[in-house]
Design goal:
Distance between the termini: 61 Å
Radius of gyration: 22 Å
CATH topology of the largest domain: Rossmann fold
Number of strands: 6
Number of domains: 3
Number of helices: 12
CATH superfamily of the largest domain: BRCT domain
Helix content: 40-55%
Strand content: 5-15%
Shape: globular
Strand order of the largest sheet: 4-3-5-6
Length: 247
């Protein structure tokens, strides 16, 4: 079998590629192959309708920063008043997006909706995200990807508050330890908990109200929860059907 050698330069802009966690990245912010796709994905996630490939080309933008630097006058001039005014309104509306919505829209490798929700369940503002916390919430590779993006990008120049959405009323925090019996994956369990108004977290703190331990194994999280006075339950279904009604 013929070996395939990894490229050293971007085939689109010839910028030298960088390897992070065994994945090749082109860090050229002006790379035409990734700029339009990044903006398209951003617009799709934040529901900025009217910002497809053709419009991006007409507006001559290559980054998300470029998008928010556009004036209403320039937008209308490029695509016409009818479409332009609608796009201006959608862009303005997107500025109110929470951290939960912005993070999965940025195209950061390994940081999708699920990872974003986990982060936002543990912090109220992006400035609170430390290296240790990111690693405990996401794992090494996803944390490294997010932290690297925050390091190399001037994200504070974008018109967002970078604040996580406020927790639902009665949104008690829930941590899970060990293997689950009631759900195939922890992600599915988190979705069910969120739907009932709970806030899933990855680590046990004094603020954690419930710890789910369906395996019965005395883990470090279980010991910490017991020491903190956290309520320990052996079934997520019990938590969803009983505690959510009386909490």
């Amino acid at each position: 079998m013929k070996q395939v050698e990894a490229p050293t330069h971007c085939p689109s802009c010839n910028y030298e590629l960088e390897t992070v966690n065994s994945v090749l990245y082109c860090r050229n912010v002006a790379c035409p192959a990734q700029g339009a796709k990044l903006i398209e994905n951003f617009a799709k996630v934040l529901k900025i309708t009217g910002l497809g490939h053709a419009t991006i080309s007409k507006l001559n933008i290559a980054t998300i920063e470029d998008l928010y630097a556009l004036s209403a006058e320039n937008i209308v001039k490029a695509i016409g008043s009818a479409l332009g005014n609608k796009l201006v309104a959608n862009i303005e509306k997107s500025k109110g997006a929470t951290l939960n919505e912005v993070l999965p829209a940025l195209g950061i490798p390994l940081i999708g909706k699920s990872a974003s929700e986990k982060i936002c369940a543990n912090i109220s503002h992006i400035s609170e995200l430390t290296d240790d916390l990111a690693n405990s919430i996401l794992g090494a590779k996803a944390a490294a990807s997010l932290l690297y993006w925050l390091e190399i990008n001037d994200y504070e120049s974008l018109p967002f508050s970078w604040e996580a959405a406020k927790k639902l009323k009665g949104g008690d925090t829930v941590c899970i330890t060990g293997k689950l019996k009631s759900f195939k994956t922890k992600a599915q369990a988190f979705e069910a908990l969120i739907a009932k108004g709970f806030t899933p977290v990855e680590t046990v703190t004094k603020a954690t109200k419930y710890l789910v331990n369906e395996s019965g194994v005395e883990s470090a999280k279980t010991e910490k929860a017991r020491a903190n006075g956290t309520i320990i339950v052996d079934s997520i279904e019990e938590l969803l059907n009983v505690y959510s009604k009386v909490g």
